[in-house]
Specification:
It is built from nine helices and 15 strands. The chain is an alpha+beta fold. The strands form three sheets. Strands 5, 6, 7, 8, 9, 12, 13, 14 and 15 form a nine-stranded antiparallel sheet that branches. The chain has a four-stranded parallel sheet with strand order 2-1-3-4, with helices on both faces. Strands 10-11 form a two-stranded antiparallel sheet. The longest helix has 12 residues. The relative contact order is 0.16.
């Protein structure tokens, strides 16, 4: 008997490249025993609503889109008892989750084969405040506005370069943020340029954490804090260290924790999985251990 697949498609992701090989991918899924029902998104939040309302009626859920689309799907599945496993057809610009998992990017046909041949693996989901979620990163500070501040038309034309150019424009606006962070076994209180809670080896397609540090289903997240060095030269050293995957800078703190509570003197803007995440003075982030399974 065929299995029922719910396939959520974000037609805007990846410059609409999902159309290349889409018919062939649907045939591969059909030949592999999947009866596929398509759900096309029209705006932000649609994937969450679709997954929350309909996922219980399917044997598996998959999405075609960027990391933001996957994040929305997972948020919807967090509202479903015993959710079905999730497949991912990465079609975005950075594709951090795909980089971590070694999934084929911008290739729906290869992703269809991976869905058929892959195995469901336990996958942690980040809890952001009382009722929001993220799949791989929640961040604030230097450059975190880049992913959602970059105009969509630039993303379509320039791809990843658009993020880099937008980030360069933000250099004059970087200001240290007084932050108190309470995490498992400790407290940090000081001036930060950047802070994040992640569950990925790749962030923004640029920064890579050591693979031996990151496990996607261990119930802990990676907390990354970048202290304010107080001068431009030291800031350049931090950037060079991170981009070259050296994490020995005295201004860089990386540790693992199940929860982290952030407290600021004034409201601070966050991003979640490359999308605008709201502004907060106090926010708690927790790791929900393996509420879903990701097929890869």
């Amino acid at each position: 008997m065929d299995k029922k697949l719910m396939l959520i498609v974000n037609p805007m992701a990846g410059r609409g490249a999902y159309k290349n090989g889409f018919a062939e991918a649907m045939q591969v899924l059909a030949n592999g025993g999947y009866n596929t029902t398509l759900f096309f998104t029209r705006g932000r939040g649609d994937s969450t609503c679709y997954a929350a309302e309909h996922a219980k009626n399917f044997d598996a859920v998959a999405c075609i889109g960027g990391d933001g689309t996957l994040s929305e799907v997972l948020a919807g599945l967090m509202q479903v008892d015993n959710p079905p496993p999730v497949g991912y057809f990465p079609m975005g610009t950075a594709n951090d989750v795909a980089t971590t998992l070694g999934l084929p990017k911008n290739d729906v046909l290869s992703a269809a084969y991976r869905l058929l041949r892959g195995t469901p693996h336990p996958f942690d989901v980040g809890g952001f405040g009382d009722s929001e979620y993220f799949s791989y990163v929640a961040a604030f500070g230097a450059f975190t506005e880049v992913s959602y501040a970059t105009p969509q038309d630039q993303k379509k034309v320039l791809g990843h370069l658009a993020y880099v150019l937008q980030g360069m424009q933000q250099l004059p606006k970087i200001e240290p943020i007084h932050t108190r962070v309470e995490y498992d076994g400790g407290v940090f209180d000081g001036m930060l340029l950047y802070g994040s809670v992640t569950n990925s080896t790749s962030v923004a397609g640029i920064v890579r954490l050591p693979e031996e540090m990151v496990s996607l289903g261990d119930g802990v997240s990676e907390l990354v804090l970048v202290r304010d060095p107080g001068n431009v030269a030291a800031f350049a050293e931090i950037v060079s260290s991170v981009l070259s995957e050296r994490f020995d800078s005295e201004y860089l703190l990386i540790l693992q924790t199940k929860r982290a509570a952030f407290h600021f003197d004034k409201p601070v803007a966050w991003t979640r999985d490359g999308e605008e995440g709201g502004t907060y003075t106090d926010i708690e982030i927790v790791n929900h251990k393996c509420p879903v399974q990701l097929i890869f």
